[in-house]
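Anyone up for a design puzzle?
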């Protein structure tokens, strides 16, 4: 049986948070969980089991933990096909047509969040194949700066990890869907590289993604991360 993490219904969590926190400071979160899984022999990446849970459920459970600890999180939207089971209270989005790349996925997630209300001022981006990526959000939240920046993202060595970031929603939307037209088959760096971001050093275990079975098995055994 596939494990699915239970979460509080979004209309309850988002409404309660918005009532006590300025909407500009609340962060909705988009979790990218699509793709072909080509390096995993075509397996559904969010459904891969490691350390007793699906990769996606590690991320969702982590977000709920942060919410319980007081981080002002709003709604969670997973970009994934209908075949990927989601717990109640989690929104679903998917670019149309599918397999348009992560930039198109972000645009689809923002669209669903924008139509679900209340709309948060910030948008976090995580990927399901980095099961500990949620741990970066508190540091990203603390590193927010003034209006001169569009967001904050993780840095792994010399590499800016745009898909592990916290952005001003309007700036992110303009980058992934200029003039309202979502970009497809566009490199992440090309689209999000237009944003004014601060990249903060993040530990390897947090940014580590699991793209191959060797990486999954290594992480599952606890030999890394």
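Challenge accepted. My sequence:
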């Amino acid at each position: 049986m596939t494990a699915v993490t239970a979460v509080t219904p979004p209309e309850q969590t988002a409404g309660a948070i918005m009532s006590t926190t300025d909407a500009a400071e609340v962060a909705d979160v988009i979790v990218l969980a699509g793709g072909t899984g080509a390096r995993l022999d075509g397996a559904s990446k969010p459904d891969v089991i490691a350390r007793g849970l699906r990769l996606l459920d590690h991320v969702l459970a982590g977000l709920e933990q942060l919410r319980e600890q007081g981080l002002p999180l709003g709604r969670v939207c997973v970009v994934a096909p209908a075949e990927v089971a989601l717990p109640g209270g989690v929104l679903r989005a998917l670019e149309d047509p599918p397999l348009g790349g992560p930039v198109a996925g972000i645009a689809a997630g923002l669209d669903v969040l924008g139509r679900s209300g209340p709309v948060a001022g910030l948008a976090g981006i995580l990927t399901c194949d980095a099961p500990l990526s949620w741990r970066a959000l508190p540091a990203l939240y603390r590193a927010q700066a003034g209006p001169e920046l569009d967001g904050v993202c993780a840095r792994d060595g010399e590499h800016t990890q745009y898909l592990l970031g916290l952005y001003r929603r309007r700036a992110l939307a303009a980058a992934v869907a200029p003039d309202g037209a979502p970009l497809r088959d566009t490199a992440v760096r090309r689209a999000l590289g237009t944003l004014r971001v601060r990249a903060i050093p993040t530990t390897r275990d947090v940014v580590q993604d699991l793209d191959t079975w060797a990486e999954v098995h290594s992480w599952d055994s606890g030999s890394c991360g």
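A detail worth pointing out: The chain is about 30% helix and 20% strand.
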